[in-house]
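Two proteins, back to back. First:
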Amino acid sequence: MEFQTIHFEIRTGRIGIITLNRPEKRNAISIQMRREISACLKKWWDSQEVGILIFTGSGNAFSAGFDLEEFNQPALYGELYETSSTYHRDIWYFPKPTIAAVNGPAMAGGFDLIQLCDLRICSQKASFAHPEIKFGIPPLFTPLRWIVGNALARDLCLTGRIIDAKEAHRVGLVSEIVEGDRLLERAVQIAAGIMEAPLSVLQFTKSYLVGNVNRGFEESFCIEHDKVFQGYLLKKASESLKPK
């Protein structure tokens, strides 16, 4: 795969990394970038070479959001909608754990991207906001409320105000603030720790992290307990009793 707007690599331990790579545009997410991210995700979807994915940005920003210059070109409207619809779903439904290593401002569509990841860590330079509401664009609400709760999500979506790394950590948007230039290294360490679990178990867990969001207790419990017992715990216990 050869891409122009992202850089990708696979590190030891089946750790895939996608770096948004338009630093001159503060990693604005263009039609091409969305297509390239989706293509990379689809290649890694069933690949045994990648068991976990890290997103980060090049330069001083994670992402300034969607490339607004493209919205001035009516001929692109169809592609804008199609790529946005596809790319958001590709990230949310990616069947393996995802980590956002937020190296700088994550604004608008960049903020959306990190909300679709399973874990988020950031540098001291990170900041987060939905400024698009000031320009007449309603922001995504639901993924944010799942992370920080209804009250704060409503606040951030309606006001468009910026929160810094410390506030993001305080409210649970990010789990850790990493000092200096160790952000990607720390994300890789977290990824390696997660990958100590069998990939099949991680993928099953990811399936209900995504799928059980709006299910009630009984339906979720049947998946997270009954199915786990029958498909994993008892199977593993039975296999351990077999003669060596």
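And the second protein:
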Amino acid sequence: MSPHACDYAVTLRQLLTGQRTHDERSLAAERDRDVAAYVARRPRLTVLDLANGRLRPQYLLLRAAGHRVVGIDVANRPGGGLEARAYRLARWLYARRLRPRGRLDGALVCGDVGVLPFRDASFDLVTSIAAFEHFLDVPAVVAELHRVMRPGAVAWIRIHLFSCPSGAHNLSATEIPLRTVPAGVDPWDHLRRRRLPVTVPLNEWRVGRYLDEFRKHFEVPRHYCAMREGESLLTPALEAELGARGYTRDELTCGAYVIVARKPA
């Protein structure tokens, strides 16, 4: 079985057992805690789910919570074939466990996140999970977010950092956080010899660069490492090798970084 087929099988098992729903609810709860101080007086928000993904987990959760949600992603393009049917089944399994009540208000848009097809000052909240690392023109995306967010609106951005062990997106996509590296693959190969090919678009930005870009347009009241991985893989020799290139232990073991950005009121 190919690595991709293995990941699909694991994802299906996670959906059937409810683990995936539990994990996505945990992410939603983390976001709710981080943005509560900014949106507490607006129980029903207009939300942009930036790069919502083919499974659309947060899009569905936000709608189930009663918000008006717009999802944008090139993956929202209608399609056929076996993979498209598999994702329709996966979305059905996921939505079935949510058991939403009442009217669901939302829309899906196929579009470019660097040229958002929305009016100025349209959204109270922007959410993005494991997408920013794939944007090749981050400054354009951040500038567009500033344009479409209302004064006082907040963006909750969770980034899968390139500097972590799984940052090249060429290891398991389902073991989160990463605990093991396949036989024959060196930890942090993508920062070292790069023997294993990188097959998806990645901007390879580091934390400081993301923060600098957001601070050009937003206040950043909070930012933090949300998930650690690879601490047992980082031997003293590896830490010294990568440290000589400017990578800190904190950076190398941070699998997910959250940036909370607020548009000045």
